[in-house]
Amino acid sequence: MLRLPTPSLLALHGLCGLIAGLASATAVQAATPDLLYTVRPGDSAWSLMQRHLNDPARWLDLRRLNRLQGDRLRPGQVLRIPVPWLRLHSRQVRLLALSGQVRTGPAGSPGQWTAAREGMTLGPEQVLSTGADGSATLQVDDGSVLLLRPDSELQLRPVDAERARQALSRSLDSPASGPAAPPATPQIGLRLELLRGGLESRVAPQRDGTRLEVITPSAATVVRGTEFRIRATDQGSLAEVVQGEIGFGNAAGEIALGRATGSVAAAAGGAPLPAQPLLPAPDLAALPSRLSVTRLRQIDWSRPSGAGPLQLQWLDRPADAAPPEPAAPLPRLVAEHRLMPDASGRLPQLQPPPPGAYRLRVRGVDRHGLEGLSAEREVEIIAVEPPRPLLPPDEGWMPSGLPLLQWSASAGADRYRLRIEAQDDRPAIEVEVDRPQWQAPRLPPGRHLWRIAALECASRAGPCWPAGDFGPARALNVPWPAPELLEPQLDGHGRLLLQWRGIEPEALVQLQIATDEDFREVLLDEPRHGDQVRLPLPPPDLAGPLHVRVRPLPAGGGLGPWSGTRLVHGPMLRAGRD
Fold first, then answer.
1. Neighbour tally for 291: CB within 10 Å
2. What's the CA gap between 397 and 478, in Å, rounded?
3. End-to-end Cα separation, the chain, in angstroms
4. Please, how many CA atoms are within 13 Å of residue 526, restricted to the half-sphere of its CB?
5. Taking the model in full, what pTM does it have?
6. Residue, of 573 and 196, whose pLDDT is higher
7. How would you list the strands of the sheet with 508-514, edge to edge?
8. pLDDT tens per residue, range 503-557
9. Which of 1, 194, 210, 409 has its CA 20 to 30 A from that of 103?
10. What residue ranges define each of the domains in the chain, with the CATH number in brackets?
């Protein structure tokens, strides 16, 4: 039976069919620095040196270590061979793709860690660490692909005596083995220690009997050919199988996990949870394949029954790339988000990654913290350039009241939404147009503010939604018409009656009466409501003539044009006094 050397972990077999039989047959073996090799019939000093030692000169050291008298060996004899002397082939792990902050260096010495580089190979006792915005895609020389998620640390474990014994046993038991067979390098399976964070794996089936082993602080996972995820948190370890089978356990027990199942091993101890069914994939059918950052923030995400948070992964995809096959290697992970519902169960707005082409993965998270099956969709996030107002110029005047509004065309926009607000109680005008211009209807006098926003639409018939907020307001002034001041009169009570027309009946106006035509010597300057006013006559020492004019005072601010000047002559004043 093959055994894991770590004292705190159960000896898990690689196939789930064998895990059920471990209850009565499992044993824990402490690691030893040397391999204990039992001499087989036909072994000789020469064949042992050729097949198992990485340096022929080591034979003399091996003789001294085992106190051999000469080079003769007898079947059944046990030899101690230090692991570093063995000719073994360890799996090579290469950094295939990096995103964000990723560092690497010797275990236990974070001060010596440096920035990781794509293409570099990780060695034993080397740690790979990703930051909050970092991820790393790793390629194993057996075809397996691993994805180290953000805020994670992964360490490659060195070859130990037990793993060397397993590799040597596989080599000796192979059909081509034997004293006369050519030298064959035993293959060492890959053992990884996930110190914290998450790891996603797509492991290639191994014909040489090797297996991937992933150790976390609270559990161990043994795999031969499968697609699975494992995470190490302060609360414990979580394993989720998408395809295939794995063994998952710790010192308190072990379970077999098959397709679409998961389990949790608590950091406080105890056997892992029985296999839990993973949540089904969310429905992304309503998600557009092309949308802006603004629209993406407004998405009401669909969650499968039983899901609390949603886990979103944004994987790199060139804009002209075809959708990958299900068995394709894991691409670069650009960003990852977990949307946590609030007390009412609503999910927060998403902060999406920069514009680009992505492969989006979404999965629900159940009450145990297990992530469910993934829904995937090819998504292009577009950058919609905000439209810029062009004409009329800011604070421009439009005597006709029929402005032609023009703005810059926005790349990525399907339509535009225009909003015109009057600075009074009138309702705003809001329209959607296809072109970057619009002939406005006749606007009432006053100051108006207009804004423009880009829209993206599902089709020419809609629906449409904002691709960004309204841009800054631009002011447009429509002048008030000059009021017509009528000929002054005297009413039946001897008062001066002034009337005007051409503006709204209850509009506010400014009334001025002066003794000179330039209105420097002003007798009266005050606002009045309505279209007429009755005033007492001036004192007798003002013989006239008096000059009168009026202009509107728009509710939104500004000043309207003056009317023509009317004269109140002396005879009228004297007649009123008589």
1. 22
2. 6
3. 133
4. 6
5. 0.65
6. 196
7. 522-529, 508-514, 546-552, 566-568
8. 877 788 999 999 999 999 999 999 998 899 999 888 887 777 999 999 988 776 6
9. 210
10. 92-157+183-277 (2.60.120.1440), 290-382 (2.60.40), 389-478 (2.60.40.10), 484-577 (2.60.40.10)
| Helix, strand, coil shares, percent, the chain, to 5 | 10, 40, 50
- Eight-class DSSP state of 401: S
Whether 53 contacts 152, CB under 8 Å: no
User: What is the C-alpha separation between 184 and 169, in angstroms, rounded?
Assistant: 12
DSSP category for residue 21:
G
pLDDT in tens, 88-108: 666 788 999 999 999 999 988
Total residue length of the chain: 578
Are residues 551 and 564 in contact, defined by beta-carbon separation less than 8 angstroms? no
- Pick the closest to residue 390 from 408, 412, 372, 403 (CA basis): 408
C-beta separation of 505 from 470 below 8 A:
no
Residue type at 27? A
The number of beta carbons lying within 10 Å of the beta carbon of residue 189 is 24
Cα(139)–Cα(7) distance, integer angstroms? 29
Tokens standing for residue 198? 């998450």
- The SS3 call for residue 79 is strand
Give tens-digit pLDDT for 308-336. 999 999 998 754 444 444 444 567 899 99
Q: Which two tokens stand for residue 142?
A: 């057996």
CB 331 within 8 A of CB 114: no
Q: Which long-range CB contacts under 8 A does 428-433 form with residues at least 24 apart?
A: 432/464
Quote the strand ranges of 383-507, DSSP E. Answer: 389-391, 396-397, 404-407, 415-422, 429-433, 437-439, 446-457, 464-466, 474-478, 484-485, 489-490, 496-501
Nearest to 316 by CA among 92, 96, 94: 96
Cα 67 to chain centroid, rounded = 64
